[in-house]
Amino acid sequence: MSNFEKYGIEHLSPSSCNLFTASPAMFVLQKCLGKKTSVGAAAHRGSAVEHGLAHFLTTGDAAGAVSLAKNEFATLTAMIGDPRQEKEAAAIADMVMTAIAETKDYGKPSSMQGKIEYKVEGLSVPLIGYYDFEFEDHGVLIDLKTTHALPSKISTNHARQVALYVAARGDNLDARITYVTSKKSATYQLENKREHVQALEKIALTIQKFIGISDDPYELASLVVPDVDTFYFSDPITRQMAFEIWGL
Amino acid sequence: MALGFNLESNSGGGNFLPICKFDARSGRMFRRDRDNGENVDVDITKTFKAVIDFENLEVGFINFNTGGAPHFAMATYGDTMPDKPSPDHKPGVRFVAKLASACGGDVREMASNAKAFLVGVDQLHNDYLAGLAKNAGQLPVVVLADTVPVVSGEGSKRTTNYSPVFEITGWVKRPDDLGGSTRVAATPKATPPATGANKVSAPSKKAPADDEDFG
């Protein structure tokens, strides 16, 4: 039985690798102890805006895109009770319009939400992910990120994520990340794709080694410590879980 | 200065080599010989030519005013700067040079904490580093091309020192009697890959073909 099978992990993804990097304790909580945790309104904001943009890019219907995004957000956040929900909801429409302005000239995507699978030598599970938009005519792959503060460059986590998509789709694709706020937007071209994929491979292999330490998830939990001030533990239920498991 | 003085502590004088010194007050280069137990400074300003062992250049702090042998707190260039042992210690350099036969032909140690000298050595070291890419594993052949006056202070405290202007005239493999060792060029340290900060825009729409222009 592989290290991953012991914990019922069938694959890793850029987000699970990034999670392990950012908060090994949350990784243990979710993936090894099997606890369900809330992702918060901000994460749903991204999904909703992406949904709206996808609608526009395929139909040209901006009003419909905004409406769809708002509905999507309302649906996704109906049960989470995040105090930031209202603020996030208020930003949805403007973010969709900003995203439309930034990407409309690419035309209709050749594919959206495409699944990729990438095998890493020595890793017993594949890396799986879903890219946002591919424009085959232009040879461009775009991932959309929503934020309240426009970054001046691609974040490392995003770089690894999109680099993997491109590695799986074909290295000759021009990988780009579009950041949108409610007022501004910027699309950055990903650099050093190969190195970022290699980083993700290393992280994945580290996870494999880490979970191989023990069949007991509580022993793995005893090897890490949660930083309960990070947003990973901001949800009261998740915070309580951390306290019960780690006593912190 | 590019030599940095940001290097590790490593005191000690090493082997006692005869010295060669640059007198910044007069702008002259001397070879110090021993004659019947006496020090004799031989002016080699006009003929100075040497292979400088910059691969084993030391930087740190030197105190020549000990009343006896100078005290060195040095580290090989590229390592961490030593702590300054005392207020009397001043930033300085030390290196070994193989003099050309016209100016002595033997191996000498050069050390100084004179600012005017350091300025010249710093420039020479910059030239050395710049030339190293095309002359890996070799040492520079250096001549004293000129000296330039450096005036400091005002009124009665006005003084003039001279900075050496060195010139690299060639590159040679390490002379056997120079000692030390040729460093293997360090593999450049890998750095984290950049993610991307270049903004790009959507491809512009194709312009319609303009038949009139090309008949």
Rg of chain A over CA atoms, rounded to whole Å, is: 19 Å
Portion of residues in beta strands of chain A equals: 5-15%
Count of separate DSSP helical elements of chain B: 2
* Portion in beta strands of chain B: 35-45%
Low-confidence stretches of chain B: 5-14, 207-215
Distance between the termini of chain A: 33 Å
Strand line-up of the largest beta sheet of chain A: 1-2-3-4-5
Summarize the main sheet of chain A: 5 strands, mixed
Low-pLDDT windows of residues of chain A: none
Cα(first) to Cα(last) distance of chain B is 65 Å
String of helices and strands of chain A = HHHHHHEEEHEEHHH
Q: Count the beta strands of chain A.
A: 5
Classification by helices and strands of chain B: mainly beta
What share of residues of chain B is helical?
A: 10-25%
Q: Rg of chain B from C-alpha positions? A: 24 Å
Descriptive notes:
The complex is a heterodimer of chains A (248) and B (215). Chain A contains ten helices and five strands; from the N terminus they run ααααααβββαββααα. Chain A has helices at 3-6, 14-22, 24-32, 41-59, 62-77, 85-103, 156-169, 193-211, 217-221, 236-246; strands at residues 111-118, 127-135, 140-146, 174-180, 185-189. In chain B, strands 4, 5, 6, 7, 8, 9 and 10 form a seven-stranded antiparallel β-sheet that branches. A three-stranded antiparallel β-sheet of chain B has the order 1-2-3, with no helix packed on it. Mean pLDDT of chain B is 82; it is low at 5-14 and 207-215. The interface between A and B is medium-sized, with 26 and 14 residues.
